[in-house]
Amino acid sequence: MEIAVHIPLSEAQKHRLSAGAPGTTFRYLARDEPSDAPVVFGNPTPAAVAANPRLRWLQLGSVGFGEYLPLDWRRPQGTAVVTNLAGFFADPVAETALAGILALCRGIDRLGDLRRARRWVGDAIRAEITTLSGESVVLFGRGAINGRLADLLVPFGCAIASFGRDWTAPALDRALAQAGVVVATVPHTPLTENLFDAARIARMRPGAIFCNLGRGSLVEEAALAAALESGRLGGALIDVTRDEPPAADHPFWTTPNTILTQHSGGGTRDEVDRKIDWFLDNLRQFRQGGPLRGEISLDRGY
């Protein structure tokens, strides 16, 4: 079997991959380099995927699938299967969310800025910081990330309102008006694009913290930046933006009380090695005709 790999690997990682799949030919390609391999591991460009007539299975090196939504997955031998890393990033992203929320509540981001500016304000900042304990929290998305975050919030005694695919606008807006923290982790779909627009951001409780760890398309960025600039919102943790990196004049670089984590929320030192393990486990299932972990519904887009 021939497998195209679109993930940069070290020589040691290539050896691990080969050792885990004896008798397999691996071709290591750039993201935009097309192939006709029946199995692909990584995130080739949509054009490279479309140009592969023999594709049977694509194992993404990500959870996100949005850029591939417009593609036709039908092939002469049948519809290709696509799997993602659903659940893979739950622990690190949830911990990033908790770290960012606590930093914003306790003013850690501002204290870091004051240190760099060599300014001591002392007691003045005490009146501007708060605690997470007992806070009302909206978790928008019922996937693995928010599931893990809910566990991490248990010791803080937060009142959690969770929204999944069955969410309704009236129920969400009522919850937003009460919540001190809002965490969004949903994927990009036509239904989620600009869901947090200017009108919905305006319905959020004054002083609330907004966290986006899903996809940048979920948020109307100019409206969020304006709410932060005006002080209507208390802070934001932004892991994902529409364009990555954002333009040099993007407001998120300078908006107050904003932590921009540069899409690193799911990162860990052993991330690539764990992706290799995930792929090899799925490859064994693929060869045996068993169910694959993380299979995407091509109709839903996640």
Q: What's the order of the H and E elements? A: EHEEHEEEEHHEHEHEHEHEEH
Helix share, percent: 25-40%
Largest beta sheet, briefly?
6 strands, parallel
Distance between the termini: 27 Å
The proportion of residues in beta strands is 15-25%
Q: Taking all residues together, what is the mean pLDDT?
A: 97
Strands of the biggest beta sheet: in what spatial order? 9-8-10-11-12-13
CATH topology of the largest domain: Rossmann fold
Ranges where pLDDT stays below 50 over 5 or more residues in a row are none
Gyration radius over CA: 21 Å
CATH class of the largest domain: Alpha Beta
Helix-strand category: alpha/beta
Number of domains: 2
Structural features, described:
- The chain is of the alpha/beta class and 302 residues long.
- The protein is built from nine helices and 13 strands.
- The protein folds into two domains: 107 residues, 3-Layer(aba) Sandwich (Rossmann fold), CATH 3.40.50.720; 171 residues, NAD(P)-binding Rossmann-like Domain (Rossmann fold, 3-Layer(aba) Sandwich), CATH 3.40.50.720.
- Helices cover 31% and strands 16% of the residues.
- Strand 3, helix 2 and strand 4 form a beta-alpha-beta unit.
- The longest helix has 18 residues.
- It is elongated.
- The relative contact order is 0.13.
- The model has no long low-confidence stretch (mean pLDDT 97).
